[in-house]
Design brief:
The chain is about 40% helix and about 15% strand. By secondary structure, the chain is of the alpha/beta class. It has 2 domains: about 150 residues, TPP-binding domain (Rossmann fold, 3-Layer(aba) Sandwich); about 90 residues, SIR2/SIRT2 'Small Domain', CATH 3.30.1600. The chain starts with a helix and ends with a helix.
Length: about 250
């Protein structure tokens, strides 16, 4: 499945950066976006995950995120998330750059999580920007109304990055720092089609990192990484950690 070289690289690594996508949460029961049965199969991204769609039909978008938030709340971190936490016992600094908005890396206990596309459990007012409790959104949606801010009546939105929106500068800085200084870069469970996240694996390779991809299906970077490991994150990552534990 994976080479002795990977275990050697991880054993000698001071810094590991991990890019994760929806695939690492698939085994927690959270649908991916582009797989058969995935989220985008029912809706086009441009229909929902952008500001224009939100302003045109706030209730639809708020209702979609409310549904996804409920799926996330019912989900638990899986062996893939937990393997990344275990990796912190072997490597001084593990930075997990996640495109996922499902909060599962935080709940699994990862120490350094960069929320590259935000976090669905947080919501804020589009006018005064104050945080708004999800219960208020749920109540409004159940009443058939768009959710508004308790202070200024502005529309409430999820704290996620939509298409066409800039990523949080702090997340960009932290991800860039981790990517360009790591000894090993793991790309796990992402179709590697959404930018700027999709650029990170090759940026790491250009900076001299040993780059490994974990995905049951090949992606645009599979031919350019040092190791492409075909398999589910919930099996491949724990297997790597078991080898690391034995070699320690
Ligand atoms: C920006 C919101 C500056 C939160 C998301 C033309 C060319 C290049 C780029 C662009 C372009 N036109 C516009 C752009 C920029 C655009 C972009 O990249 N578009 C793409 C689609 C072409 N990017 C942006 O707009 C970004 N902002 O660039 O700002 C700017 C501004 C204006 C104009 C230009 C630039 C913002 C991007 C963020 C968008 N928000 N989500 C939410 O609702 O969740 S994107 C959405 O897709 C997700 O958030 C996710 O992050 C992203 C990627 O999806 P994946 O996580 O990879 O999931 P996917 O289903 O695709 O794949 C799952 C994978 O897992 C599969 O490979 C599968 O095989 C694998 N898998 C399945 N099971 C398992 C598994 N792997 C392991 N284990 C398993 N068990």
């Amino acid at each position: 499945m994976y080479s002795d070289a990977l275990i050697d690289h991880l054993r000698s690594a001071d810094r590991v950066a991990v890019l994760t996508g929806a695939g690492i949460s698939a085994e927690s029961g959270i649908p991916t976006f582009r797989d058969p049965g995935g989220i985008w199969e029912k809706f086009e991204p441009q229909e929902l995950a952008n500001v224009e769609a939100f302003l045109e039909n706030p209730e639809l978008v708020q209702g979609w995120y409310r549904h996804r938030r409920q799926v996330v709340e019912d989900a638990e971190p899986n062996d893939g998330h937990r393997a990344l936490v275990r990796l912190e016992q072997h490597v001084d600094l593990v930075t997990t750059i996640t495109q996922n908005v499902d909060d599962l890396h935080n709940r699994a206990g990862s120490s350094e999580v960069v929320e590259f596309h935000g976090n669905i459990t947080r919501n804020y007012c589009t006018d005064c920007e104050q945080d708004v409790d999800a219960a208020r959104i749920d109540a409004a949606i159940e009443d058939g109304q768009p959710a508004t801010c308790p202070e200024c009546e502005g529309l409430v939105r999820p704290d996620v990055v939509w298409f066409g929106e800039m990523l949080p500068p702090d997340a960009m800085d932290r991800a860039s720092e981790a990517t360009t200084t790591c000894d090993v870069f793991l790309s796990v469970g992402t179709s590697t089609v959404v930018y700027p996240a999709a650029r990170l694996p090759m940026l790491a390779k250009e900076a001299g990192a040993y780059v490994v991809e974990v995905n049951p299906d090949r992606t645009p970077i599979s031919g350019n990484v040092d190791e492409y490991l075909a398999g589910p994150a919930g099996e491949v990552l724990p297997a790597i950690l078991s080898s690391l534990d034995k070699a320690a």
